[in-house]
Design a protein that fits this description.
It is a single chain. The protein has two domains: 27-306, no CATH class; 312-343. It is 57% helix and 4% strand. The chain is built from 13 helices and four strands. The strands form two sheets. It has a two-stranded antiparallel sheet. The protein is globular and about 70 Å long. The model has no long low-confidence stretch (mean pLDDT 95). Residues 179-307 form the Fatty acid hydroxylase domain. This is Sterol desaturase family protein.
C-alpha cells in the first residue's frame, strides 16, 4: 500500500500524516452532529471494545471465586500474574513480530524510519531498547499491574469498594463503562504532568523517555514508581459506583491500551487493502519533543493548558514560542540572582 497517499516522507525517511491530530469532535464548537456520528464508531472500535471484552473474559475464566479473593493469597496472585504476563507477551509480541521483527509493512506509515534494533544505546540495559523494555515490562510493569488488580479485587470481595450489580443498575454501570477511556485520559494527563517535574523526570520518567523512537515493548518500559502511578487509575473505582468487571476493563485499558500509542506506526496494514488506525501520532510527538501532548486527543487537556502539538507547522511554532519564553524567564531569573550576588 502506498503510504504517500496519506502522508509525506522527509529526506531521512521519516513519515508524517497529512491530517493533523484533532481532539474528539464532541468538543468542537459549533456542535457538529455529523462529525460526532462519524467519530463515534472509532470510540469503540477496534481498541476499546477489545479491552472491554478482555475484561469480561478475565472475569469469566481467570478471576478466582469471590470467596478466594477475600484473602490475599500468593497462589491466586501468581496465577493472575501468569495470565497477565502471557497476555502481554502475546499481544505486545504480535505487534513486535509483525511490524519490527518480520517487518511485513517495511517502514510504510512509520513515523521514524529507523528501527530500534538498528540504534544501540548505553541508555538501555544490554544497549538494547527491546531487551530493556521487555525486562522492565515483566519485572516491574506486569508485577505492579497484578498487585494493584489483586488489591482492588480483594477490596471488592470484602466490601471496601462499591460493587453494583448489572441486573439492578445497568444504566449506571453502562455510563461508568463508557467513561473508562475518559477516566484513563484524565488520570494519565495528571500523572504525566506530575512526573515531568524536574526531580521526578530525572529519577523516574526519564526511563520511559529513553525510547525516543518508541516500539511496542516501549509501552510499559517505565520506572516502578511510574508503573504504580500509571496503574493507580484503578483506584478511581474505590469511589465510583462501579463493578469488578469494569475495574478490570480499566486495568486492561491501561495495560494493553498502552500499545497503540507506542506502536510507532500511524496505520497498521491488515491484508492487502485494509488499514487500522493506531491513533499514535499525538503520543509519538510527545516522545519526539518531550514537553507536548501529555494526554491524548480524547479530551483537549493539552489545548486548555497550552501544551498541544497537532503535528502542524502552527503547532511547531507554538511549541518553539513556549520554549523561547521559558528560556527568557530562566535567563531573567539568573540575571537577577547574579545581580543580587554582586551587590552583597
Amino acid at each position: 500500500m502506498d503510504d504517500l497517499q496519506f502522508g509525506k516522507r522527509n529526506k531521512r525517511g521519516d513519515w508524517t500524516p497529512n491530517d493533523t491530530v484533532q481532539p474528539a469532535p464532541i468538543w468542537h464548537l459549533p456542535f457538529d452532529l455529523k462529525a460526532i456520528l462519524h467519530w463515534l464508531p472509532h470510540y469503540f472500535f477496534p481498541w476499546n471494545i477489545l479491552f472491554a471484552l478482555s475484561a469480561v473474559a478475565y472475569w469469566a475464566w481467570v478471576i478466582p471465586p469471590v470467596e478466594t479473593l477475600r484473602t490475599i493469597g500468593f497462589g491466586w496472585m501468581l496465577w493472575l500474574y501468569a495470565v497477565n504476563a502471557v497476555c502481554v507477551f502475546l499481544f505486545y509480541g504480535a505487534f513486535e513480530l509483525h511490524l519490527y521483527v518480520l517487518r511485513r509493512q517495511g517502514n510504510r506509515f512509520k513515523y521514524n524510519a529507523k528501527f530500534p534494533s538498528e540504534q544501540k544505546s548505553k541508555a538501555f540495559w544490554f544497549e538494547s531498547q527491546v531487551i530493556d523494555s521487555m525486562l522492565r515490562t515483566f519485572l516491574s510493569g506486569v508485577t505492579i499491574w497484578t498487585a494493584v488488580e489483586a488489591v482492588m479485587l480483594w477490596a471488592y470481595a470484602n466490601g471496601y469498594a462499591p460493587w453494583l450489580s448489572f441486573a439492578e443498575r445497568p444504566w449506571t454501570l453502562a455510563l461508568v463503562a463508557l467513561a473508562v477511556p475518559i477516566i484513563h485520559e484524565v488520570h494519565f494527563f495528571c500523572v504525566h504532568r506530575l512526573i515531568h517535574t524536574p526531580w521526578l523526570y530525572k529519577w523516574v520518567h526519564s526511563v520511559h523517555h529513553n525510547s525516543v523512537n518508541p516500539s511496542p515493548w516501549s509501552s510499559l518500559a517505565m520506572h516502578p514508581v511510574e508503573h504504580l502511578l500509571y496503574f493507580g487509575t484503578a483506584f478511581w473505582h474505590l469511589i465510583l459506583p462501579s463493578n469488578p468487571i469494569i475495574m478490570i476493563y480499566q486495568m486492561n485499558f491501561a495495560g494493553f491500551g498502552a500499545i497503540p500509542g507506542h506502536v510507532g506506526f500511524d496505520k497498521i496494514e491488515v491484508g492487502e487493502d485494509k488499514l487500522v488506525d493506531s491513533h499514535a501520532y499525538a503520543h509519538y510527538l510527545h516522545h519526539k519533543y518531550f514537553e507536548v501532548n501529555y494526554g491524548d486527543a480524547l479530551i483537549p487537556l493539552d489545548k486548555w493548558f497550552g501544551t498541544w502539538h497537532d503535528g502542524s507547522a502552527e503547532g511547531e511554532a507554538r511549541m518553539q514560542a513556549r520554549y523561547r519564553k521559558r528560556k527568557e524567564r530562566i535567563a531573567a531569573r539568573q540575571a537577577r540572582t547574579e545581580a543580587k550576588g554582586a551587590t552583597e
